[in-house]
Design brief:
Its cofactor is [4Fe-4S] cluster. The protein is mainly α and 96 residues long. It has helices at 37-44, 49-58, 71-86. The structure holds iron/sulfur cluster.
Length: 96
């Protein structure tokens, strides 16, 4: 469902394994205040959830559900990472 570039023509990207392939994209971009439960439910069983979340964090995706997290939840992670960087701590990618 998400835009993705691959290095090799036969190299499958993480998006090819997304649980949300074929799912209505509107589900992942709910109106303000609308429930995110259904989208997060799709993400819960997704084998590339961490790749998706890391992609959204790295690219500063401001809208929608990525990796099972809302904008607010991702903002919190970015803030924690910024604090850790400022404190000179190692910032590790999110893990399952
Ligand atoms: S984590 Fe969610 S939004 Fe990301 S690829 Fe998987 S199902 Fe799609």
């Amino acid at each position: 469902m998400r835009e993705h570039t691959v290095d090799e023509p036969d190299d499958k990207g993480w998006q090819d394994y997304a649980n949300c392939l074929g799912v209505d994209p509107d589900l992942f971009f709910p109106e303000r205040g609308a429930s995110t439960r259904e989208a997060k439910e799709v993400c819960r069983g997704c084998v590339v959830r961490m790749d998706c979340l890391e992609y959204a964090l790295t690219n500063g995706e401001k809208f929608g559900i990525w990796g099972g997290m809302s904008e607010r939840e991702r903002r919190r992670i970015r803030r924690q990472r910024a604090l850790a960087r400022n404190a000179g701590l190692e910032v590790k990618p999110v893990t399952a």
